[in-house]
Design brief:
single chain; about 375 residues; alpha/beta; 11 helices; 8 strands; elongated
């Protein structure tokens, strides 16, 4: 066969290859623009982040499209945390950060409360996020929405099928050569997806820790405190238990949770331990358990029988508990509704000194997701 005939014979195959690559590139660009996860190599402890666009704003958060520059005369509060703070199963306008903002605005404060919550984040990721991502927003106050499984290390959340793309910054693996990799990375979503798959595979192969790691949590909590101090930003910690704890005593909580024996007992024990560790580090805290119980038992389920993520009413109760504390710190008139302490018959955690049992977390690589990553709610303008 002559070279010309060979070329003609190969032309259809080459055409299909080019067409396939073109369609693959187009589809990956669509996915990347809609709802992607990126690996931020410039901040390893951050582990992963949301790409901008899709259900996130242009900065990659479940928040309005806010400018980085802080408006003159505005006090800015940064709300950090996992899927509970993020606002799983509720519109962003009903998550506790926005409800807190509305309460403060109603009392005359010129304030922004920005939601930086990312589902799956453990306390290490929160500290890294403050240092590497949130500091540039110049917050006047940081509120960490701690949830009871935050001491469980998280590596990467991919279980719901969202594509992973390698972010900017130095990478710890090479595909072809540094120069060619960099060129392809800039120009091809298909190549970025390939890199992301390789990164996700490498992360998934790391040893997993599926228990609450209190020693590491102590280190992370100290790091968060010290990072806020280095930035000269006050830090307030909202301690959040499973919302089903609003039911009252442990048997009622267990019945509401529907998660099997000792779910509430173990999680309340973890809640108390985290509160004690925060107190040891002289962190100012707000009691989310008292907040959930303040207006009596209620169905706070955000979706189905999920005991972790509250509905709008649960978020409202958290915001109401925070508002007087935040108002005082910001110098706003202290006329906001207060949250009563739990009644004398409220649940006390079991006296046993045994370490808490792990919180169920079947869909995260490593831990940290309250009940697994939910679909992200559409941001409300």
């Amino acid at each position: 066969m002559t070279p010309r005939r060979a070329l003609f014979a190969a032309a259809p195959a080459l055409g299909f290859l080019v067409l396939g690559l073109g369609l693959g590139e187009w589809s990956q660009r669509q996915a990347e623009a809609k709802d992607a996860i990126v690996v931020p190599w410039d901040a390893p402890a951050l582990k992963y982040a949301f790409a901008a666009g899709g259900n996130q704003n242009r900065h990659g958060y479940n928040e309005r499209d806010v400018d980085l520059a802080k408006p003159a005369g505005t006090l800015r509060i940064a709300a950090l945390g996992d899927s509970v703070t993020h606002g799983a199963f509720v519109p962003s306008a009903q998550a506790w950060p926005r409800q807190l903002e509305n309460l403060l605005l109603a009392k005359g404060a010129t304030v922004q409360v920005l939601n930086f919550g990312v589902y799956g984040y453990d306390t290490e990721s929160v500290a890294a996020q403050l240092r590497h991502r949130v500091a540039e927003w110049e917050p006047d106050l940081v509120i960490y929405g701690f949830y009871v499984n935050d001491p469980m290390p998280t590596e990467l959340v991919t279980a719901d099928g969202r594509p992973v793309y390698v972010g900017t910054g130095p990478r710890d693996f090479q595909v072809i050569s540094p120069a060619i990799d960099a060129w392809l990375h800039r120009g091809s979503a298909l190549f970025r997806r390939f890199e992301g798959a390789a990164a996700a595979r490498a992360i998934a192969e790391r040893p997993r820790r599926e228990l609450l790691d209190w020693d590491r949590f102590g280190v992370w909590l100290t790091d968060l405190r010290d990072t806020a101090a280095a930035l000269d930003v006050p830090l307030l910690t909202l301690l959040i238990p499973p919302h089903v704890a609003s039911a009252g005593d442990v048997p009622a909580c267990e019945a509401s949770a529907g998660m099997g024996r000792n779910f509430c007992a173990d999680n309340l024990k973890a809640f108390e331990r985290a509160a004690a560790m925060a107190n040891e580090r002289q962190l100012e805290t707000v009691d989310g358990l008292a907040a959930y119980r303040a207006d009596g038992p209620a169905d706070l389920h955000g979706r189905g029988d999920d005991p972790h993520h509250p509905n709008a009413e649960g978020h409202r109760r958290l915001a109401v508990a925070l508002a007087p504390v935040v108002a005082q710190k910001l110098g706003v008139a202290a006329t906001l509704p207060a949250v009563a302490p739990p009644a004398s018959g409220a649940v006390a955690p079991p006296a046993s000194g045994a370490p808490p049992a792990p919180v169920a977390n079947p869909t995260a690589v490593g831990g940290g997701v309250a009940g697994g990553p939910p679909p992200r709610p559409t941001s409300t303008p």
